[in-house]
Amino acid sequence: MPTPPAARPLTPAARRVLDTAHELFYTRGINSVGMDLLAERAGITKKTVYDRFGSKDALVVAYLTERDERWRAYLTGHLAGVGGGRERILATFDALGAWLAEHGTRGCAMVNACAELPDADHPGRRVAREQKEWTRGLYRDLAAEAGAGDPDALAEALLILHEGATVAFTVLGAPEAARTARRAAEALLPQG
Q: Which residues form a coiled coil (predicted)?
């Protein structure tokens, strides 16, 4: 597999391909989008797509990796100005609500990818798993900072609230799902 785009500068053509992949993979689904459509929408040849990414699997990995990087930067940026573990935990749900309203019309790109990529060894599933592990680790660190007696157990519960809010927002059209999850999280947190 070629070096992932995050590890090397993107050419203008590769940037167009990746931007197009972001739009099409997220809105239509990975398996519904062929390389011909990607090339056409990016305004380049299919050969150029393969020259820049090597395979559709590598492009899927680049798409998911970049989406993950955007989410992590968004969330950590949102938390940067918030003090205290308890407040920072609650702020993750505020960030999630804002992200979903702006970027989440079809839910979590990582979960969507896992649903479309049944091979547990697909490199795209690895990206998704790493994002969820990172999120659980963030919650564990924040739970410890907040003085939780069992940071691992609290992190697991917070991750489930986070993921459940995403599903409720997307599937049920519940615009307040992240706020509801925030209130549930608040009830789980140590007082102090």
A: none
